[in-house]
Amino acid sequence: MADKVTKTKSKATKEGDLPIGPTGRPYHGFDVPAPLDSHGPARIIALCNQKGGVGKTTTSINLAASLAEYGRRVLAVDFDPQGALSAGLGITVHDVPTVYDLLLDTKRDPREAIVQSSTPNLDVLPANIDLSAAEVHLVNEVARETILARVLRHVAGEYDVILIDCQPSLGLLTVNALTAAHGVLIPLECEFFALRGVALLIETIDKVRDRLNPSIKLDGLLATMYDPRTLHSREVLERVVEAFGDDVLETVIGRTVKFPDASVSGVPITEFAPEHAAAQAYLRLARELVARGAVA
Ligand SMILES: Nc1ncnc2c1ncn2[C@@H]1O[C@H](COP(=O)(O)OP(=O)(O)OP(=O)(O)O)[C@@H](O)[C@H]1O
Ligand SMILES: [Mg+2]
Questions:
Q1: For ligand 1, atom 23, which residue shows the shortest CA distance?
Q2: Where are the domains of the chain?
Q3: What's the topology of domain 37-292?
Q4: Atom of ligand 1 nearest to the CA of 52
Q5: Model confidence pLDDT, tens digit, residues 169-201
Q6: Per the UniProt record, which residue ranges are transmembrane (predicted)?
Q7: Does residue 9 sit in helix, strand or coil?
Q8: Is the pLDDT of residue 160 over 90?
Q9: Coil, strand or helix at 194
Q10: Which atom of ligand 1 is nearest to the CA of 260?
């Protein structure tokens, strides 16, 4: 008993000693996750926000690379016809099978389309502009919302985590991603209209939970492109925390030109500039998601 009390006390003191982070809560470092001795089945996380340019793809790439660095087997699914995730990981998608071909024939082995990235433990299911035809092609399919779920079922056993980089829309592709997913991560850019549309996104997640995927969870909201020097950025983050409380992840991604630079080079920031604060932020995000139980 005495032991228990001392333990609780020492934890409380430790919490009190932590600096306050940008979300107004104590700023944890989060422990480096223990290595896994077996792999799979994957937890599937969709990165969604119908607002464009909020950091969905940048987060998919760099969170995937960070989890891979911690020994997790990761599949990053490019689910946007713009193909930015594929390009950002240096994958050329010309005359090769893509996620689109798998959607058209769910019996096809996804391994025909999956490619290894240059990052160990990180595979990619690429996309290209062909995917823009998917919504039209699939609209008359039976169970058209569950097609991606059926595709990913073939390979889920081989990965610890599957990240789906959604396109900026709430159309059929995004509904497919939400139907396939166990959790949703919502990146939000720290600027004036950040919260516009989030209510509609949450409503869509609720509908998917109600009708298609009862167990889907909100894994968190991630503030991106945060600039602590501007009052504006700080105010936006404050409003996001007011609205969503502990669903806002403690990890906040700062604004830096290193991201566009890394994308051009076709490698994650954790390889392009491993010591940079932005690379460290994505590693911390990976640790936070493991600590929250969103990833094994
Ligand atoms: N933390 C950051 N600091 C500075 N620039 C960033 C940051 N995160 C992303 N960017 C840049 O902002 C742009 C948009 O980011 P990204 O492509 O990740 O957003 P997205 O939500 O996937 O966009 P879309 O909706 O078009 O798919 C890119 O040029 C990217 O390099
Ligand atoms: Mg994108």
A1: 53
A2: 37-292
A3: Rossmann fold (3.40.50)
A4: 25
A5: 999 999 999 999 999 999 999 988 888 889 999
A6: none
A7: helix
A8: yes
A9: coil
A10: 31
